[in-house]
Specification:
0% strand; mainly alpha; single chain; flat; 3 helices; 102 residues
Length: 102
């Protein structure tokens, strides 16, 4: 049960990070407020940053089964997937040690 708490928390965290990035890009392009959009997207980039550790694994894992078209969306999706895995492991460990959530 504690592992499930960590996994669900990681999924919610990464989806909210994606929404922060999406909102920042929308504000930047739609309202021409690049500084505001950048400030809005920074929390999302910080949350997804641990996913960059898995970029080297894209060539060795069958990521093409998840993202068959590849390209930039496949790389970003892979980074998001690796970030979810990173946060799932970390938050599940903290949950088992009774540090997360509280």
């Amino acid at each position: 049960m504690r592992i499930l708490i960590g996994v669900v928390s990681a999924i919610v965290l990464c989806v909210s990070a994606y929404l922060f990035i999406l909102a920042g890009e929308f504000v930047s392009s739609e309202y021409e407020a690049k500084a505001v959009g950048m400030m809005l997207a920074i929390p999302g980039y910080i949350i997804i940053a641990p996913g960059l550790l898995g970029v080297g694994l894209i060539d060795y894992l069958p990521i093409y089964l998840i993202f068959p078209k590849g390209g930039a969306s496949g790389v970003f999706g892979s980074i998001l997937l690796f970030a979810i895995i990173f946060w799932s492991v970390l938050l599940s460990f903290l949950s088992c040690k009774r540090y997360w959530p509280f």
